[in-house]
Structures are given as structure tokens and as C-alpha cells.
Write a structure and sequence with these properties.
Layout: H1 2-8, H2 25-29, H3 43-46, E1 57-73, E2 79-88, E3 94-101, E4 113-120, E5 126-128, E6 141-143, E7 147-156, E8 161-171, E9 181-188, E10 191-198, E11 201-214, E12 220-229, E13 232-242, E14 245-256, E15 259-270, E16 274-285, E17 295-297, E18 302-303, E19 312-323, E20 332-343, E21 361-373, E22 377-378, E23 382-383, E24 396-408, E25 411-413, E26 423-439
Antiparallel strand pairs: 1-2, 1-3, 1-26, 3-4, 4-7, 5-6, 6-9, 7-8, 8-11, 9-10, 10-13, 11-12, 12-15, 13-14, 14-17, 15-16, 16-19, 17-18, 19-20, 20-21, 21-24, 22-23, 24-26, 25-26
Length: 440
């Protein structure tokens, strides 16, 4: 059995590495062009320096529903369809953020300091292929339910410059999926093999938000955001299973890439009645850190997994038009959002993995934002400020919704190290997300 695995098995660490950008429905609706706006609690993910814009205590939570499929056609005409382990990935990737402006709680001796903590699922989802499919020796199922715990601080150094510093603690939990990275395949008839592993690792992030221009009311008209996220190395430890029985211990190393984001946002319109924002973000993702994903078994044997991924860029364009004073909805804010992303693929044909839909990508989407202030009426029944529990009454409650279509360009893979993977892949995914925001 060990010999069979050495010849055929893929590496456990390759399961669904590319990241999930949608970590807040409003930002997601703007195709994640949000690092220079960063004015809700999802700033913890997009640009932590933006937390200094948030007053009091704020809470946000939500989830991303991802569906769609990949259709495969081999050079001989064989076909297969991959999905998200069903019509949609479950459990859905989620996000939770809590921020606090400390001076609003009487801690003025610390200066203009904000603190926050977030919990996200930043990398991977689920991909399932048929157990009798043409490349069952490569993959039939993969998942990477990795959690990112984000303790973060932000400091307003001057009226126009804020700085952020945080940690990214990557780990696994049985509360999300199986609680480990997992990859399944069928290298021989009747033998279902599985590799899995887990670890905890830490990285860091630093960021800035600079306001270059303000209007007469002091509101930003032009912002610049810069964010750096460091590499983090997971030394995955787990096992190799065959038909559910343990065959060997297994280890692999996964290097999560460094990410550099530059962003600029402008507000052509920003008055007491309405706002219109335009933003462009550019992401550099250092996927070249994924050179190999070799798996070492308990007997010292190694399953070689060269990868040689290439670093990529993504360009994200987003817009938001917000009504701040509607006669028909007093004390409500209503926003329409839209965006477009163009993203490069990171995997060469030689090491292409059907568990990751890697192709040049176009994402289009939009969404709706609603914020009910303290004096606003909820469904005409009660004030939004009365929706709290006990003495904890909110100053505002908001809901954001987004819908995106991820349109992958057709990709033809030739010369893969596993010839069964060669063929044409056509992928379309759909993402829907929702977030609830409460301001205290």
C-alpha cells in the first residue's frame, strides 16, 4: 500500500489554497475594492488602519455562500463535473469582527487607539469530483477549512494618517468542516485514499490609511491605503488512510503567501445627503512561495509534489452610491454597490490541480447596504435603537447583501505530471454573502 501511495497520491497541502476575498458583504459587493475606504468592522481584514474611523463598539458577522461547478473535457472526449461538495459549499465560510475605539470608553491616555479581533476563513472551500471520474487518481475531494484569528490594533498618528498592526493566527477547528486540510483520491480500483493534516502558525500584518483630501465637513474625499500581510508556514501533521484505515503518519509543509495591497479611493460626491465613492485596489500575492508540497510518510518515504506556482496580481474596481437622508426612510442610510475584479491564475500546466479552479478570472457583482439609525423605524413597528438586549441599546443596525459571478476563462491543461488531468476546464462560480453590523 505504501508503494501504491508513493506512485499515485497527491499532496494534502494542495487542497484549495487560493484565498477567499469576500470577508464582508459590503466589500464583497464592491469586488473587495475596500482597503482605501475601510469604514466598517471588516477593516480588520481589508485595512486594519481603517479601524480608527469607527466609533464606539462595533460588531459584524456574516457568511459567504459559494456555488457553481467546473466542467472538464479530456482530449479523448471523457467528461466530468466538479462542484462545491454539492450545490453550495457547506458549512459556508464565515467572518466575525469586533472593534472598539478606546477613547470612546474613557481611555484617552492611550491616545486615539482602536482595538479589534476578527475570525475569518481566508483560504479554500470545497471541491468534489466523481469517484469514477477520469482523474480520480489525482483528486476526488479537497478542502482547507483554515481559520484566521486576527487580534489587531490601530492608531491615529495624525488627523490624516492612521497605522495598523495585527497578527494572523492560522489554525483548524472541528467547528468548521473536519477541522483539517484533507484530500481524497482513488489511485487504484476499490482503494479510497485520504491524506489529512493540521497545524497552527502565525503571521503578521501592517497597514496605513492616509487621507489626502477632505471636504469642508472634514470627511475624506481621497484616501490611500497600503497593507502588507506576511508569509506564514504551516507544518501539517496528519495521516494517510486507505479505505478508512490508517496506513501511515504523514507530514507536509504549506507556506501561505505574502500579500501586498495598494488602494486609492475618491469621493466625487460627498455631502450630508449623498455620497459616491470610486476605488481601485491592486493585490500582489506571492504564490511563488509554494515551490513544493512534498508529503513525508512515517517510514521516511517522500511523495514528491513539485508545484512552482507563480506570483500573481489582481485588480479590483468598486463603487458605492449612498443616500444619507431619504424622505421616504428617515434615519436610514441606503447604498447601492458594484464592482469588477480581474485576477491571474497561479498554477502552471505541469502542476495544475483540479481541486483548485485556477484560471484567469473575471468577477462581477453588486449589492445593497441598509443602515437603520437609532431613531429609525424597523418595519414601522419599533425604533432600531430599541432592538438591543437590556440596557445595551444599539446606535445603528445594518445589513449588507452581495451577489457575485466568478467567470473563469476556459483553460486547457497540457503536459501535466498526471496525464489524466490534461484537458479543458470551464468554471463558473456564484457567491452570495450577507453581513449584519451593530454599532453601540
Amino acid at each position: 500500500m505504501i508503494g501504491l501511495c508513493l506512485a499515485c497520491l497527491p499532496g494534502m497541502a494542495s487542497a484549495q489554497v487560493p484565498r477567499i476575498q469576500g470577508q464582508g458583504a459590503a466589500a464583497s459587493a464592491m469586488s473587495n475594492a475596500f482597503a482605501a475606504q475601510a469604514d466598517d468592522p471588516s477593516a480588520l481584514h481589508y485595512n486594519p488602519a481603517g479601524m480608527t474611523q469607527l466609533q464606539g463598539l462595533q460588531f459584524m458577522a456574516g457568511a459567504l455562500i459559494s456555488g457553481g461547478s467546473t466542467d472538464f473535457t479530456s482530449p479523448t472526449g471523457a467528461t466530468a463535473r466538479g462542484d462545491r461538495n454539492g450545490s453550495a459549499a457547506w458549512p459556508p465560510p464565515a467572518h466575525t469582527f469586533i472593534t472598539a475605539n478606546l477613547k470612546d470608553f474613557g481611555l484617552k491616555a492611550l491616545g486615539d487607539l482602536s482595538a479589534g479581533i476578527g475570525l475569518t476563513v481566508p483560504f479554500g472551500s470545497l471541491t468534489r469530483w466523481p469517484n469514477d471520474g477520469p482523474f480520480r487518481t489525482a483528486t476526488t475531494f479537497s478542502t482547507l477549512p483554515l481559520l484566521d484569528i486576527k487580534p489587531t490594533l490601530a492608531y491615529k498618528a495624525t488627523e490624516n494618517l492612521s497605522l495598523g498592526l495585527g497578527a494572523d493566527i492560522y489554525t483548524f477547528s472541528g467547528l468548521v468542516g473536519e477541522g483539517h486540510v484533507e484530500k481524497q483520491s482513488i489511485p487504484a480500483a476499490g482503494v479510497k485514499t485520504e491524506l489529512f493534516g493540521k497545524d497552527t502558525a502565525a503571521g503578521f500584518n501592517v497597514s496605513l490609511l492616509y487621507t489626502a483630501l477632505r471636504n469642508a465637513d472634514g470627511r475624506p474625499l481621497a484616501n490611500i491605503g497600503i497593507v502588507y500581510r506576511s508569509q506564514a508556514t504551516l507544518h501539517l501533521s496528519g495521516a494517510l488512510l486507505a479505505n478508512g484505515a490508517k496506513v501511515s503518519d504523514a507530514r507536509a509543509t504549506l507556506v501561505l503567501p505574502q500579500i501586498i495591497t495598494g488602494a486609492i479611493a475618491i469621493w466625487p460626491v460627498r455631502t450630508s445627503e449623498r455620497e459616491w465613492k470610486l476605488e481601485m485596489d491592486v493585490d500582489y500575492v506571492g504564490w511563488k512561495s509554494v515551490r513544493n508540497l512534498d508529503v513525508t510518510l512515517g517510514n521516511g518515504a517522500t511523495i514528491a509534489q513539485p508545484q512552482n506556482w507563480r506570483s500573481t496580481y489582481a485588480v479590483m474596481l468598486g463603487t458605492e452610491y449612498k443616500w444619507l437622508a431619504l424622505e421616504s426612510l428617515p434615519n436610514w442610510e441606503v447604498a447601492l454597490l458594484g464592482g469588477y475584479t480581474n485576477q491571474q491564475n497561479q498554477m502552471p500546466d505541469l502542476t495544475y490541480d483540479p481541486g483548485i479552479p485556477s484560471s484567469d478570472l473575471h468577477v462581477v457583482g453588486g449589492g445593497l447596504g441598509l443602515l437603520c439609525k437609532e431613531q429609525g423605524s424597523f418595519l414601522g413597528l419599533m425604533r432600531c435603537g430599541d432592538l438591543g438586549v437590556g440596557s445595551l441599546k444599539p446606535k445603528a443596525i445594518g445589513v449588507d447583501l452581495s451577489l457575485q459571478a466568478a467567470l473563469y476563462e476556459d483553460r486547457t491543461v497540457l503536459g501535466n505530471r498526471n496525464p489524466t488531468v490534461d484537458g479543458t476546464y470551464r468554471t463558473t462560480l456564484y457567491n452570495g454573502s450577507g453581513s449584519i453590523r451593530v454599532i453601540y
